[in-house]
Amino acid sequence: MNIGARLEAIGKLVPQGVSIADIGTDHAYLPAWLAERDVITKAVAGDIVAGPCAAARSTVAMYGLGNKIEVRMGNGLAIVEPGEVDVIIIAGMGAGTMIEILEAEPETARRARQLILQPMAGAPGLRRWAHTNGWRLADEVLVEEGKHLYEIMVLERGEETEAVDVAYEVGPLLLKQRHPLLPKQLNKLCGHYRQLLANMQRSAEARQSEKYKSTEKLLQELEGLDDGGHGK
């Protein structure tokens, strides 16, 4: 089963012999891929919409994995009981939606051994949320699929040393690892903030704002990393 670079990278972060909940499972390709390889003992594949749940059941039936994967329709983590699964996977959503899902069922989130999260946008805010809510970054991965770069993070319960803004922006472990895709990620981030500053420059009021100053400072720090400062 070919599930693409993004889902495969997520799958490779799942520990051997665990139970998982895949929230927003869509076609349940990731749980099926993990079950086929005997990585997981069981999976709850959940989605809030009937169509994806039907597609997920079709995948499970096609690969004969009904003994390992149960498809449940429902909202976020409401489909699993606290302590029912070891690892919670949420992928392919915005960070804000992920945070809403985790905060809606805090006991279920807390009792998981790990959270594996792949936000489509808003990764810096997700890292800050994790830090302020008792989660530490256990691992981070960048993966390229097509024209897109995806950030994947593994969270575990525990305290973490305070990171500076630029580290939250890029990913402290990605910086530490000197990840091979880091230059592309930095180039993307710098482009985003240059465009944001260019837009703000059209307004005299925006140019004088604290947001403009802080964004300008952040861009300078990112450009410093792009010049090789991440190795110092």
Structure notes:
- The chain has 232 residues and is of the alpha/beta class.
- The protein has helices at residues 4-11, 29-36, 50-62, 95-104, 106-110, 123-132, 165-170, 172-177, 182-200, 204-207, 210-226, and strands spanning 18-23, 40-47, 69-73, 87-94, 114-121, 135-145, 148-157.
- The protein folds into two domains: 4-162, Rossmann fold (3-Layer(aba) Sandwich), CATH 3.40.50; 182-231.
- The protein is built from eleven helices and seven strands.
- Strands 3-2-1-4-5-7-6 form a seven-stranded mixed beta sheet, with helices on both faces.
- α1 (4-11) crosses α2 (29-36), α4 (95-104) runs parallel beside α6 (123-132) and α9 packs antiparallel against α11.
Task: Please give the structural blueprint.
Elements: H1 4-11, E1 18-23, H2 29-36, E2 40-47, H3 50-62, E3 69-73, E4 87-94, H4 95-104, H5 106-110, E5 114-121, H6 123-132, E6 135-145, E7 148-157, H7 165-170, H8 172-177, H9 182-200, H10 204-207, H11 210-226
Parallel strand pairs: 1-2, 1-4, 2-3, 4-5
Antiparallel strand pairs: 5-7, 6-7
Provide a short characterization of the protein structure.
With 232 residues, the protein is α/β, with parallel strands linked by helices. The protein folds into 2 domains: 4-162, Rossmann fold (3-Layer(aba) Sandwich); 182-231.
- Number of DSSP helical runs: 11
Q: Indicate the CATH topology of the largest domain.
A: Rossmann fold
Largest sheet, described in full?
7 strands, mixed
Q: Strand order across the biggest sheet?
A: 3-2-1-4-5-7-6
Give the helix proportion (percent range).
40-55%
Question: How many structural domains?
Answer: 2
Stretches where pLDDT is under 50 for at least 5 consecutive residues are none
Shape: elongated
CATH-assigned homologous superfamily of the largest domain:
Vaccinia Virus protein VP39
Would you list the SSEs in sequence order as H and E? HEHEHEEHHEHEEHHHHH
CATH architecture assignment name of the largest domain:
3-Layer(aba) Sandwich
CATH top level label of the largest domain: Alpha Beta
* DSSP summary, beta strand count: 7
Kindly estimate the percentage of residues that lie in beta strands according to DSSP: 15-25%
Indicate the structural class.
alpha/beta
